[in-house]
Records
---
Amino acid sequence: MAMLQECRKKGVYEEVHRAILGERLPFVDQQFDHLLCIGVFQPCGPSSRSLDEFVRVVKRGGLICFTHVSYVQYRNRLTGPDEEVGFLEKRKQLEKDQAWVQVYESEEKPFTPGQDPDTLYRTHIYRRT
């Protein structure tokens, strides 16, 4: 919350919103040209339902770029009455549903080289279809 206040104070962004990933984002369908989400998907972070919302808010043809701790993609979580698929399965399902097509997937690499070599991340880029 303090970082959002700092951004508002400095006028870094035209708009600053606070939302909970995994829940419906406070934006209309296809509002954004592109979406960038870096360093958010951690082991105890947002659910894979976030990816559905990314697709919903990005315009067709736009890019969706995100990073995640590499083992997050294999995690399955129970959220309320619905069993949720992990990140790998969700990404594959969105491709099968023709919601997006993969443009790039990095190899695993340290997010902060030299500081925590055991925490590996991947970067993904998809084009919204």
Note: The chain is about 20% helix and 30% strand.
---
Amino acid sequence: MSKKKATVTLPTRPQPPTPEQIHEDVNHTLPDDVVFTFFETNTENETAGIMGDSYETEENSETPASTPGSTDDSNDAEPQQNVEELYQKAIQFLEVNNELKNAPKSLRAQCEQLEEMGRNLTEAIGQLKSQADQGL
């Protein structure tokens, strides 16, 4: 029973933009475009992240940025806690994943040890039986 692997044909890649197209795009961007403001520092001299000032506290900002679906009375610390919690879960997942990758090798070694111990135990039982038979 041989299985044929399905061949997948990928679509062709689009052509990269020409230098003229790149210059045109850069010339038509606004000064407040994210590509220019991503690495600017905020009022506390901290590097702004992907979310920019959406996590700024109200006391540090004259007009706090709001995220879609948020209300004015929302607590800005809560999203940061959620981000930290998700980060910790991701770290924990990666650690467990690495342990699972190493588990087969570890389990094989433990299995070999148990088999060796079983052989030694069987041999010791055989020796005890032979000594018991000789003593009678």
Note: Helices lie at 19-27, 34-37, 77-135.
---
Amino acid sequence: MYFETFQLVLSHHPEESLQWDKKLAECSTQQERDQLKSQLSVDTLKFVLLLYIQQLHKISLRTSLVYTEEWPSRTRSPDLEGRTTPASSKALDEHSHITFVLNHLNEIMELLIEPDAYGASSRSDLTLTVESVEALGFLIAGSVDRNRSIKQLLEVALVQQVQPKSGYSKITGMFSFRMFQSWLRSGIGNSPFGISSCIATGRRLSWPMAAEEARPEGAAVTTTKRGKIATNAHCVPKDQLRGNKIIIMSQVCKQTIARTSGTLELSSVKIHRCHYSYLYLLSPLRSVSIEKCRHSTIILGPVETVVHLNSCEHVTVIGVCRRISISNSTLCTLHLLTPTRPLILGGNDSITLAPYHTHYSKLQEHMHQTGLTNAGNLWDQPFSVGPDHHEDHPVWELMPPKEFYTFNIPFEIQGETKSAPCELPTKYKKAVTLREKQIDSWQKMVKEAGLSKDERKQFQALVETRFQDWLADSGHKREVDALVLPQETKKK
């Protein structure tokens, strides 16, 4: 799992990911797959840093570890709404991240020292190699032009004017451990392209919300609170958008949002406290975080790295992604196309897994952009690491075929994809086929009933009435009403 995580956070060209997935899909046995995976390698120093961070993470089994402080230490801090929340409910606190790194910077840097350096020098004369500083760039990046561009930590440390402060010696080709640490401490700060920065200085997006737009002319204005959507796309360097461009969607309530755009493309999306909403984000995405959402359906374009759900309830996610993980959530349904095993962490209950079952016209194109294929789908092979999961009483289940329905995305986009990218498993395909036959049989029966013109009208009115009653009783009426285009849009 850690090796897969390491590969995820590295920047791979989409074509490399496509080739790897293709090779993996061609393996006919588990032995062949294991043999292929054994050919992969990792940068040792960077991987050590990843493990150090992981063993301090809250979800780790801390009781068996030397260190006991959490990553991060989630003390009271303002969240997206400006309120204070208890430590256990805080999902992201960049200030605590910085505090943690500064408190443990000496230990982190000591992991990167060459073993023989301890014997050759006194502790005050310890040095860091260029390779060690390059590895530290796995966690820390820098800038020398007030964040107009992002540079690797090593590149910043070797700038001519910076070398006296960073402790670099041209004679030895190494950095003074003491001076480098002092230089880092004096300049380290929050990422200018992080969540907190986006909240503070981001540009608000006025994405149309269908339910709001579809209100008939002259109808009373509802009191539904409009959600907050913001991005930092305008301030991220154009050649460094991947991984730095962020879109935050917060407090979208009883709305339908459908979007495909350049701003959304390859962004890291944070969906926070959205309730009773339908969100269609039909662009290739870098990563998606879904937190504290309730009774919502979220349809995603292909996600290059990770989709993570945390503290959600009655949420349905439909998407293609490299990896998906879920924690502290209940009664959630995941329709997936993923080449890795779904990661079920702690605090979950009643999680339903199902195969991916929809498409839109640009899906295949977007999958190629994110390095994803339909070569293998491990949606039904979750990896449960939470302490509340037991083999005799799992926190997840596969969706029963009788409850499975295909999902239609009700928007027209120019593209070549005409069907779902992967074939349904046999039992689900049979359930869909049986349902289609029942519909055909019913339509045939109506056609052969020999109804007169007036009887057909009366029958049609009865069907429509019953359908409207079903929409209201099932709660789908708001969803359908939200898809009605406003009159101004129709005229255009």
Note: The longest strand covers residues 313-327.
---
Amino acid sequence: MSASTTARALSGYRRLFRARASLFQGDERALRESRHAVRAEFVKNKNATESQIPELLQMIDDAEDMLLHGIVRGELNEDRGVVEVKLSPEHESRMDTETMTHLDPITSDMKGIDGKGKPVIEITKNRSDK
């Protein structure tokens, strides 16, 4: 592997760790599991051939984009029995919230809040200027 390819892979590794830290801030379980998942993928592909590397580098870019823009976090409001999801401006620009019918939970902990196997999702717009 050339020095520039190694640098790109290490840069991608750091970008994925920053993206997961941002997405899962405050959720120790998700941080731990995502850390193990990212590391496992890099270890699995440490002996990749030169012909595999461009695809793997693209997968890093795609994974970072998904973590930053394709996943939203919700907070369970037990009093109301809903998961409140606040969309950031980046998410709003990529989603059609008028026609979106549901969001799928990524953990089994969220099953059955509505009695039908899927949580009730309430989408609000995040007005914070971070």
Note: Strands lie at 74-77, 82-87, 121-125.
